[in-house]
TrEMBL record:
The keyword Membrane applies. Residues 253-272 are annotated as: Disordered. This is DUF4231 domain-containing protein. Pfam families: DUF4231. It comes from Floridaenema aerugineum BLCC-F46.
Length: 272
C-alpha cells in the first residue's frame, strides 16, 4: 500500500507541476497574439496609403484573431479535462487511504464517486460565478453612487462661477440623475443578497463535498467488513451525498420565490 501511495503521490506532484505551467503557457500565447494584433493595427494605420501593406495587415489581423479564439477554446478544453481528472483524483482518495484493506479500488465505485463529485463541483462553479458577478456589480454600483454624489457639489460650485462652457452647466443636473438611476437599480435588484446567498451555498456545498471525499459520517464505509455490504454502503453514501447536495441547491433556488411570496402577501395585507 505504501508503494501505491508513493507512486500516486509522485504522479499527483507531476500533474500539479504540469497543471501550473500549462495555464501560464496559454496566457503567454494569448498576450503575444494580442500584442501582434496591436502591431498589425499600428502598421495598417502608419501605412494606410499603401494598399498592399494594409491588405496584408488586415489578413494578419484576421489570422491572429482566429488564433486567439482557438487558443481560448483549447484553454477551456484543458480546464474541463483538468477538472475531470481532479474529480477522479478526489474520488480515489478514500481508496488510496484504505484500498488494500477494504478492496474498494474498483473502477465502477470510483467512477460513481467521481460523477457525484463532478455534479457537486459543477454547482460550486456556477455559484462561484454568480457570487463573483453579483459582488462586482454591487461594488461598482455602490462606488458609482458615492463618486457621483461626491462630485455633484463640486459641479454646482463650478456652475456658480459662471463658466462659459455650456457642458459644465449641465453637469450638475446630469450627474445627480445618473446617481439616482444607479441607486435605484442597486436597490431594485438584490445584488448584495444574491452575492451573500451564493457565498453561503458555496461554503455548504464545499463542506459537504469534503465530507464525502474523506469518508466522514454519514459517508463512511470503512467499518463494513463484508465486501458486498461495503459496495452497497458506497452506493448509499453516494445517494445520500446527491440528496444532500440537491437539498442545498433547491433551498437556494426556492429562497427568492419564498421572499417574493412573502412580499406579495404583505403588500396585499397593506392594501386591504
Amino acid at each position: 500500500m505504501d508503494s501505491q501511495l508513493n507512486s500516486n503521490t509522485g504522479v499527483s506532484l507531476a500533474w500539479e507541476t504540469t497543471d501550473v505551467k500549462t495555464p501560464l503557457i496559454f496566457s503567454v500565447i494569448e498576450f503575444f497574439l494580442i500584442a501582434c494584433c496591436v502591431g498589425a493595427i499600428g502598421v495598417a494605420i502608419l501605412f494606410k496609403d499603401n494598399s498592399t501593406t494594409v491588405t496584408y495587415a488586415i489578413a494578419a489581423l484576421t489570422i491572429l484573431v482566429f488564433l486567439i479564439l482557438l487558443n481560448q477554446r483549447f484553454q477551456e478544453t484543458y480546464k474541463r479535462s483538468t477538472k475531470q481528472l481532479d474529480n477522479q483524483k478526489k474520488a480515489r482518495l478514500y481508496s488510496y487511504m484504505f484500498g488494500n484493506d477494504l478492496k474498494v479500488e474498483d473502477e465502477p465505485i470510483n467512477l460513481i464517486r467521481s460523477r457525484a463529485i463532478q455534479y457537486c463541483q459543477e454547482l460550486v462553479d456556477d455559484y462561484k460565478y454568480t457570487r463573483r458577478n453579483a459582488r462586482n456589480i454591487y461594488y461598482v454600483f455602490q462606488l458609482s453612487t458615492v463618486i457621483l454624489s461626491g462630485v455633484t457639489p463640486i459641479l454646482v460650485l463650478l456652475d456658480k462661477l459662471n463658466t462659459s462652457s455650456g457642458i459644465v452647466r449641465w453637469l450638475p443636473v446630469i450627474f445627480p440623475a445618473i446617481a439616482a438611476i444607479v441607486s435605484s437599480i442597486s436597490t431594485s435588484f438584490p445584488f448584495q443578497k444574491t452575492w451573500l446567498a451564493a457565498n453561503t451555498t458555496v461554503e455548504l456545498l464545499e463542506a459537504e463535498q469534503e465530507k464525502f471525499i474523506l469518508g466522514v459520517t454519514p459517508y463512511r464505509f470503512s467499518d463494513v467488513p463484508d465486501e458486498v455490504q461495503r459496495k452497497q454502503k458506497v452506493q448509499e453514501s453516494v445517494e445520500n451525498f446527491i440528496n444532500q447536495v440537491n437539498t442545498i441547491h433547491l433551498k437556494q433556488i426556492q429562497s427568492p420565490q419564498t421572499e417574493t411570496k412573502s412580499t406579495d402577501s404583505e403588500t396585499a395585507k397593506s392594501q386591504s
